[in-house]
Specification:
Length: 301
């Protein structure tokens, strides 16, 4: 996961503010100087300064240029003179939630906390370990002991919607836990345990129970990976979903009018001027309902 060039500039400025090299009112280097110092294009340096302004770290003043804000928020960890592992995890989650997992770096986390980068390694061995701690903390935010008295379907619906809510809250989370490479995350296992509890005593052997659990999880996680993927695509191209369709709509229209795909053409025509609105929440519920209907017929009938 490579740190974007503009993020390196943001992290550098925040670190300089955190350790006192830049103080409120101090003027930042010009956009051209920042671009030269970091070996990036002017547009990249401009993007970094814009993000710092949006975060309230710097302000633009007439005839003064860009200066450090007079009241930069100082994390509680700095007031204590030290950070704890939990501070790192929370700061990292906030970065990943706002900017994606690709934007996460130890330097950026340290800058957010206002501490030297090397001090973070007292609490985690590496960025990879930090990501695992982030994922486990995120999975632990929702869910808990499921009532065993509830029907199997109600229990599975509750677990499925809880996981979907967590992925909605943290779009990066689905990318951390690939289906084929399970990770030792206790809080993720809590959700798996709730699924297995719903399936217990239903006449399924161990292989069948795990197959069902994997099938349900793959539907949720597989759909959830699109959440951050769309955000990354928009950041990379600068195009929203509507903008993307404006660009590629004519090409799709040409395919539809070719006569080679009559069912596709009929479907696209039926949408009319309003077009089709992709709603991942609707598709999640459709998939969950369809899978549970199938279990009701093929397994629990």
């Amino acid at each position: 996961m490579t740190e974007a060039p503009y993020q390196r500039i943001v992290a550098d400025v925040r670190e300089r503010i955190g350790d006192g090299r830049l103080r409120p009112g101090d003027r930042l280097p010009s956009t051209r100087d920042l671009a030269k110092r970091h070996g990036v294009a002017l547009a990249t340096a401009t993007k970094a300064l814009t993000l710092l302004q949006q975060q309230g770290v710097v302000v633009s003043k007439p005839r003064s240029g860009t200066v450090v804000a007079g009241t930069v928020a100082v994390p509680a960890a700095v007031h204590r003179g030290a950070v704890a592992q939990g501070d790192l995890v929370r700061a990292a989650i906030e970065i990943a939630d706002a900017e994606g997992l690709a934007a996460l770096s130890m330097r950026g986390v340290a800058a957010k906390l206002g501490v030297p980068t090397m001090s973070t390694y007292r609490y985690v061995e590496s960025k990879d370990q930090l990501v695992l701690l982030m994922a486990d903390a995120a999975y632990g935010e929702l869910g808990g002991q499921e009532p065993e008295s509830a029907a199997w379907r109600e229990q599975l619906e509750r677990v499925g919607r809880t996981l979907w809510a967590l992925y909605r809250r943290h779009p990066w989370l689905a990318h951390v836990t690939p289906l084929t490479r399970p990770l030792p995350l206790p809080n993720l296992l809590r959700h798996g345990e709730a699924m297995l509890r719903a399936l217990a005593g239903r006449g399924l052997d161990a292989h069948a129970r795990l197959d069902v659990q994997i099938m349900l999880y793959s539907h949720i996680q597989g759909l959830a990976v699109q959440l951050e993927a769309e955000a990354q695509a928009q950041a990379a191209t600068g195009l929203t979903e509507d903008d993307w369709m404006d660009v590629h709509g004519p090409g799709l229209g040409a395919i539809a009018s070719s006569g080679r795909y009559p069912h596709f053409t009929a479907m696209m025509t039926s949408f009319g001027e309003g077009g089709y609105e992709l709603d991942l929440d609707r598709i999640f519920e459709l998939g969950l309902r369809t899978l549970l209907d199938g279990l009701a017929v093929s397994v629990f009938a």
